[in-house]
Amino acid sequence: MHDGHDHRFECVRTVPLFAGLSVEDQHRIASAAVTRSYERREQVYRPGDRAGLYIIHRGQVKVYRLTDSGTEQLIRIMSPGDFLGETALLADTTSDHFAVANRPSEVCTIPRDGVAQLLTERPAVALQMLQTVSERLGTAEQMLSALGGQSVGQRLAQQLLHLAEAEASPRFRLPTTKKDLASYLGTTAETLSRRLGAFQAAGIIRLGQDRAVEILDSTRLRQATSD
Predict the structure, then answer these.
(1) What CATH number is given to the structural domain containing 214?
(2) Are residues 123 and 174 in the same domain?
(3) Domain of 135?
(4) How far apart are CA 117 and CA 170, in angstroms?
(5) Residue 72 to residues 9, 184, 207, 224: CA-CA distances in angstroms?
(6) pLDDT of 26-72, one tens digit each?
(7) Nearest to residue 109, comparing CAs of 135, 128, 86?
(8) Is the pTM of this model over 0.70?
(9) How many CA atoms does the CB half-sphere of 169 hold within 13 Å?
């Protein structure tokens, strides 16, 4: 098996979506995949594209929409093992958002026809994909609810706790810039910085270099989600 296929197989193997497939099936998917490298700020796809299923192998990809005023509204940040493009595939439509590399990245793409055949032959993969889509919709609904009824401080506290839980550690790094995080939380970078500074001044968190954060008092941070 040549190196190119090995590389694509490693990409496919890391995706939870394909974890239940046999090694033979994973290799079959890998043989149809195309791997491409992206520089920082390079577009992976844009609205109107009809490509396939994108798997993040290395790096980080930002998914966002443009508002009517032309500002970016962050949807999510994708890390190695994550996949995107599934909504357009399931609905047989084109993309309605942008995907851009946040840092030098490698992305494996499985063509639309190959994914459609896979979902037909392996219903378990289709169910797993629907579960992931459902979870993302649930997260989006929670964020919309929070935007309507929570303060910026409450939303930020909730997000910091979520990041700590995802890392299983009180020490972590913000996965994106303050500007993008502010967009995701429905506020401005200046307001976000003030809220982070207030949490630090209160002894709840400690901010470090390169977007490092340490939660010093998780009890008070949880209280801040409802204050």
Answers:
(1) 1.10.10.10
(2) no
(3) 3-146
(4) 43
(5) 34, 9, 25, 27
(6) 888 888 888 999 999 999 999 888 778 898 999 989 888 887 777 77
(7) 86
(8) no
(9) 8
